Fold:
Amino acid sequence: MKFDEAYSGKVFIMSRPNYEEAQAVIYGMPMDYTVSFRPGSRFGPARIREVSIGLEEYSPYVKRHLEEVNYYDAGDILLPFGNPGKSLDLIEAYIEQLLADGKMPIGLGGEHLVTWPVLKAMHRKYSDMALIHIDAHADLREEYEGEVLSHATPVRKACELLGPENVYSFGIRSGMREEFEFGRTSGMTMECFEVAEPLKKHLPKLSGRPVYVTIDIDVLDPAFAPGTGTAEAGGISSKELLQAITMISESDLNIIGADLVEVAPIYDHSDQTAIAASKFIREILLGWVKR
Structure:
């Protein structure tokens, strides 16, 4: 199945024209209806695609060229503006179709709540899956100002769905006291402030398992990624996130899908956030899509 009806007019660099032959599918989730501070991440997927034209097709990190990976950019899912419930249902149905067609989903956000319906669809196919969550924020609230559908809740929902022992969070440096208490006592793994070194320690525990990876761009310090809705000082560098992505590439994890969320281009007129995000997507394509 093709999703040409969702095509936004721009594609990620070297995207192939044939959906049926693709190993992986890039798709956008342009939703930012539940954000608690600054909106604008619904424009992230399009801008990540647009700036990807500046990338080299070769990665010296994994020594592969984009011509070696067959991927299709399906554009953005057409989501009803202002209706998070229906939008999440549409995303979930979209992922179900991708999985039925044997494609690896690589999502571009959008606010972080968009990861939740993806996880629901993935879990139906991979009941023993684990989640790697790389973010500045814990996202472990049960609700935000009375709203259970919030960009502050997806990882708590993931713990309830997958079991907290199957959720691994890295880079966390912001959240309520109760969220950090949950991280310490629930059985999940929560590593604060750093990503690469603690990830290296935990990767052997996930050996051979199906793993979904979600990356919030705000794990980076605002010096490296100012274009995000909820920037948080004290983050990691672009170099460290690239190291983490490469570690996963070199591991024996079975990466079943990934997303990168919360790029909000309006707050970064230099495009350094979108440019970094597009490079991370290149490395995900080259390192995580099965050879």
